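FAQ
Q: What does a multi-component entry look like?
A: The components come first, one per line:
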Amino acid sequence: MSSAYSTLVEKFRQLSRLDHAMTFLQWDQLVMMPPGGNQSRAEAIAELASMRHEMLISPEIGELLQQAENQVVEAPEKRSLVEMKREWQQAVCLPASLVKAQSLAGSTCEHGWRSQRKDNDWSGFLNNFKEVAQLAREEAKLRQEVEPEKFATPYDALLDLYCTGDSSAFIQEVFTGLKAELPALLGEVLERQHASADLTGSYPIEAQKHLNEKLMSCLGFDFSAGRLDVSMHPFSTGDRGDQRITTRFRDTDFADALTSTAHETGHASYEAGLPLEWDDLPVGQARNMCIHESQSLLFEKQIFLSRPFLRFFTPAIHNLLPESKRFDADQVWRACIKVQPSFIRVEADELTYPLHVILRFEIERELINGTIEPKDIPELWNMKMQKYLGLSTEGNYRDGCLQDIHWTDGSFGYFPSYTLGAINGAQLFATIRKERPDWQDLVVKGDVGFIRDWLREKIWSKGSTMDSQQIMAAATGEGTHPRHFLAHIRARYLENSY
Amino acid sequence: MSSAYSTLVEKFRQLSRLDHAMTFLQWDQLVMMPPGGNQSRAEAIAELASMRHEMLISPEIGELLQQAENQVVEAPEKRSLVEMKREWQQAVCLPASLVKAQSLAGSTCEHGWRSQRKDNDWSGFLNNFKEVAQLAREEAKLRQEVEPEKFATPYDALLDLYCTGDSSAFIQEVFTGLKAELPALLGEVLERQHASADLTGSYPIEAQKHLNEKLMSCLGFDFSAGRLDVSMHPFSTGDRGDQRITTRFRDTDFADALTSTAHETGHASYEAGLPLEWDDLPVGQARNMCIHESQSLLFEKQIFLSRPFLRFFTPAIHNLLPESKRFDADQVWRACIKVQPSFIRVEADELTYPLHVILRFEIERELINGTIEPKDIPELWNMKMQKYLGLSTEGNYRDGCLQDIHWTDGSFGYFPSYTLGAINGAQLFATIRKERPDWQDLVVKGDVGFIRDWLREKIWSKGSTMDSQQIMAAATGEGTHPRHFLAHIRARYLENSY
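Then the predicted structure of the entire assembly, as tokens:
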């Protein structure tokens, strides 16, 4: 190792220890902290974030990167250096004044949105949102200027923060493939869908907690290296050896918590399986949100919500929640995968969800690239909702363009990862099914170890040592392609096969 | 404010935000973290501790302190500066090589002790302990050299880390007053003590958890600014607006957890009542461990274990733990305050506890000042145990000089704070009793607000704006004096009055 490189390794390890601190302080804030702790916690996290940022953008790191680039020639370290430089560049390219203005405008807009959404107040929201959008455009331009040959449009530079490596042109191509078939498929599924049972009942929370822990164990979660807790919104976080996932319980429903727990278990499994030899370095981190979401959706949609897995797992539900005995495994399965077009993305089924995402991708792309203005959003939203899902949001901002938190603080470029994740997940699982034609015989017995082993080898252990499309191609024989997702939808919803 | 002083305020606020992070990462480690998280957590905490140390000992702070000392003349800031300088001096006076050697020797000795204690292996322990003691002597000399006019002996310099402001000569005088009466008092109490009930029974943990939370609420704990959890050893920690205490439950006993919860609620109440205007600065912190322990022991011994409070609280015990109904309030009280000489400090009652502490104080003082050697400890221990408690530890190292963890990592000077705390607590409560002769009428109704108000005004809100003996004198009319503790023992154990 060159001495510049090994100094960088030490520096990035320090950064990752600050990340560790922030990670668990934030977990505690959302899961354990009493309200009185808000101010001192916010101050502590802001201080750590600021120390981390100062350390990362110090001139020393820039010089070390330059020296190391001239010294490092071997493949694995070279790759590690690329990922270090990416993180450094993403931090140094924005002036502190812009970051501060964004933070302020974002807080104001998000704060206002919480009541404006309830009040269906688009014009009030627009007042604050204009500045958020303007600052995001500035951010996008500055990020684009760092690597103009890589980012074809300003939006591509924002996209790269979440969908690292996948360009907007590529994503558009993938989404075009989906759009060409999904609306018609939706009509067909709705026509042929059986009526499904209403799972509503009385399901004690304490028993549900045990049931969810049981599900996690069945899915391979290691409780000596992680926890399940309760929070307002489910999430997954952690560090080496300690993955924390959360869920939420309602005492009238069991399916929602289980589905969400399976989803977060996928995220946690990916994190737990990252390459130990690159631990604490950028190259050892999860590749991007499109891969991350592919793991959570694979666990949720491809494993947990599969007919064989629910045949295996329903006896555990019956056992811990006696009132659920009214429903057999296939009734539970059908109720959980019911397709129903609706206004709200987070409540959407797996067939309509991509249409919600494509709509947002198309709008935010134009917004950041400057071909539409914030005021144009509601009309475009309504038009696309009618076209993709047959629903009108005219005048209904609450259930339309005001429903998501993402844009309020300027997180543009995040939405596509949900659907790229769904496609990647379906594509990875299609390969697994092909390699293990007996997969249903295994899963119906609760054996998912072969799936975990495959994912560990092909995805988790790769960290960021390859680009996401290289990872997909090495694992499945090709880059992200919508045909696998569409095949999955047909098999599950038209052929009822799994 | 001088500009040097206000820069110092900013610097110490940064340090306190790192403290916040370490505080809650350590709480998590002991209360929530799965075992798999050990390594990454240890690395993160070590990194934060090292960053904090580097920031504190930077030459800039030394220069700012010097500048500020010449500029600051007003009383409150001057006091604040004194406490900043104390913290800085305690950090800069030790070379990094010594700190590292101590950390290594301490870990080795503590690790070995865990099995050597079980094996009664004094000579194995001695092998490791010699170096710990030698390094502690070096530390003591270096600390003494900083302020030779303040520290009469090397041991005084270590004592100052925990009993800040109380010299070893002063403590010896106080302890001499106790020693003169306690052994005889013990004999008298043992002779006249009634037989007490055996509280052993079956007490479900979940109900005990509710009971302990109820106790905390009765004692004034604010659950919007704190939590109760479970850990292997009870402790209390936290930061502004967020006090975390822990306890442990056994399903055969309820008294132990309640007593410990009352104790930790005292610690937490002190922390929650510290002066907001000095928040995040050294002068706003708890004065020292002798005052801290006075608050926990006042809550435990003077309030919770008082006859009137247990008359008030026993119905809640009956209500949540039906099997406890066999015992009336006075039976619970007598069982909880039973006096019984024993080998083990942590299991000792309030009458014999000081004798365990005095023994340790006398031995560690001589050890650090160099008038005895580590090899002399077992003989001295046995001699003093026979003299103070009538028990022989000859050849029984396990229940003698190997029982405590404190010395294994070089924490000399801590033990006296337990008994100074007990004396201070009794002295403070004697003043409260004098000012409120109707105290039993209030406490028997569960009213402890007048006690909290008094403590807030006299102790909590003072932070470190005064020396501990000034605080005691302002609150009670004199510095720490053993007569109040002895009077409390006589009143409770010979006169059965409360």
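Q: Is there any commentary attached?
A: Sometimes. For this entry: Chain A has two domains: 1-92, 104-198+273-306+328-498.
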